[in-house]
Design a protein that fits this description.
- By secondary structure, the chain is of the alpha+beta class.
- 44% of the residues lie in helices and 18% in strands.
- The chain is built from 8 helices and 6 strands.
Length: 185
């Protein structure tokens, strides 16, 4: 049965635990699906939620907040969003702040993403995240990446330019270390 949620949430762009689940093999996807998913992150800086709430709980809490404020129905939601000049924000049970905008998909009209500098989030360049996760997806047994291997991943699989030196890859190396601490060997 298809998901009937009115919420649009890009887990590839905003949900850290999705990457952990993929790299742990808890979410079974093909390499093609993995690289298609990475394309959904775009090419900009983004806010990544790494808090304790599951994606399901995030959705439930957003819907519950909207219901309490009597703006869950599409027309009421549009009116509420309009009062905030195109967006509104909510704080969820873990203290994280979420921005809500109008979604433009049939049946899904509530677009959510973590607020900038919200508790339980960090900002990350999409190209750094793509490189770090693609490296670990392709080389799960490689503990310390070399610049050569990172550049191979960037050029061959992500269509990104090579890094000039290790210093240029500092954020990527840090993301790889962060991911390695959270995935099971």
């Amino acid at each position: 049965m298809a998901d009937q949620s009115p919420i649009i949430f890009n887990r590839w762009k905003h949900y850290w635990q999705h990457y952990i689940a993929v790299l742990n093999g808890e979410v079974h996807i093909s390499p093609q699906q993995f690289f298609q998913g990475l394309k959904l992150t775009g090419d900009n800086l983004m806010d990544m939620y790494e808090g304790p709430l599951t994606e399901g709980v995030l959705r439930e809490e957003v819907l519950a907040c909207l219901e309490v404020q009597d703006c869950l129905a599409p027309l009421k939601y549009d009116e509420w969003i309009g009062q905030g000049r195109g967006y509104q924000s909510l704080t969820l049970s873990d203290g994280s702040h979420w921005v809500l905008r109008r979604g433009h998909h049939w049946g899904a009209y509530i677009h959510i993403h973590p607020g900038r500098y919200s508790p339980h989030t960090f900002r990350v360049k999409s190209t750094s995240l793509k490189t770090a996760t693609a490296f670990l997806f392709l080389h799960p047994d490689q503990n310390v990446p070399s610049l050569h291997l990172l550049n191979d991943v960037r050029q061959r699989y992500l269509n990104l330019s090579p890094l000039k030196d290790d210093r240029a890859g500092t954020a990527i190396f840090l993301l790889i270390q962060k991911l390695q601490r959270e995935i099971t060997p």
